[in-house]
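Entry 14: structure prediction run for Serine/threonine-protein kinase RIO3. Input pasted below.
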Amino acid sequence: MDSVGVAAAAPDAGPGPAWQSKCPWGAPSTTSISCSLADVMSEQLAKELQLEEENAAFPEVVAAAEGPFITGENIDTSSDLMLAQMLQMEFDREYDAQLRREEKKINGDSKVSISFENYRKVHPYDSDSSEDEVDWQDTRHDPYRADKPTTTPRRGFIGKGKDITTKHDEVVCGRKNTARMENFAPEFQVGDGIGMDLKLSNQVFNALKQHAYSEERRSARLHEKKEHSTAEKAVDPKTRLLLYKMVNSGMLETITGCISTGKESVVFHAYGGNSTEDKVIPPECAIKVFKTTLNEFKNRDKYIKDDYRFKDRFSKLNPRKIIRMWAEKEMHNLTRMQNAGIPCPQVVILKKHVLVMSFIGQDQVPAPKLKDVTLSSEDMKKAYYQILNMMQQLYRECNLVHADLSEYNMLWHDGKVWLIDVSQSVEPTHPHGLEFLFRDCRNVSQFFQKGGVAEALNERELFNAVSGLNITADNEVDFQAEIEALEKMNEDHVQNHGKKLSTFSSDGDPPIYDE
Ligand code: ADP
Ligand code: MN
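Run finished. Output tokens:
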């Protein structure tokens, strides 16, 4: 939209739209008015107008509105309240633009015009959206609910004699219309009209209703667009705030861009900022943002639901918090691995569903996944033994099973293999822990056998080598059956003793318990 910049920059270029000249209050003197429908709808224009306005209001924070990927220089984003308000304003402005369009459509060229002024989001600064825990979209629900309107009985009138009021009575009808605004989509702002003795004419009501419906459709479209937008926009406003804060606090220097967009997470690269006395910030960081679109996580329930470490909390949590638990889980698991000396990203900080860790790679280029790198046969063999060793350490020292181990989640960096992506990792005594381990073994074994490592154990041998179990079945089906029998034994033990075995034992030794 080329004309947008011009329109925003030069408010007096050309005459304003028809409604402006007819407006009995005259044109507002401070804001610039766009020229066409397309302009009114333009997000870019809205943004520019907003920037202009904010420039006047808060000159020092405006630069932060340009996007989440900014350096810490010259920007004062210290006020969360301010940032939250800016986001709210962006929302409100979009809403107002749509309202203005609707108003224009209804009034057309008519001499008498209806003003939607009262339905505008007059004062965006009023919203209380500073508190991090509050979902600022939820705060838009109107707490000032009117009493339900008295209904007109079937016969169509109430009262007696000359006091009869029918359902067509103007006052009743008007009040009813006002009350019915409640049924508009929750995103639709009806102002505080509901709480007042407001009487809407049918015409105005219908116009508003129409507007509410199209608004609902539009916001659904907008939502969809947001969901599928480019990587930079893949984070929601709340996440953007978290990222702002990290840059603003000096912990991160710059967030440079996106490394990966998966179904469940988006990973960004960032240059580390200033280390403090108690926190060393690596020169390059990876930021893993767990997606707050919930449906992607449904099929992962089984990992966390049955993980006793999270069991008590699981049932009490709302979906948003469950997603935070994934991030938390990844953090805990990475820390265990770090303590065991397994090459993996080092945790820097966890904030809600955002995990910052050290970056595996250099100069913004992430280390290649094992599936993408061509190794010499010598390196391939080296990698294999390293992984065998890591799997054993993971199992024995960290008491973990990766549960998504494959050439996709191993990076080749500095002549060795690094394990990543451990949010789904579980303890071996997880009800499906051994099955997950067997699957990991199958992936690793197949990858290295195909990759020409003659020494590579087959999946069953690898499973025994990692777990220390001695399952003797010589075919996959029986092997799997024995694994499941062990898992069941553990579950029964939990049922009977209220406690899990801390390790599995294959040789009939009494089980060892956690203290
Ligand atoms: P998921 O597969 O669940 O989306 P991952 O943790 O596997 O999430 O991250 C996705 C991709 O991002 C990885 O395949 C890797 O390329 C990159 N990545 C993740 N963490 C790091 C890191 N610490 N350093 C470098 N690259 C990383
Ligand atoms: Mn992965």
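Notes: The CA atoms of residues 342 and 386 lie 10 Å apart. Will compare against the previous run tomorrow.
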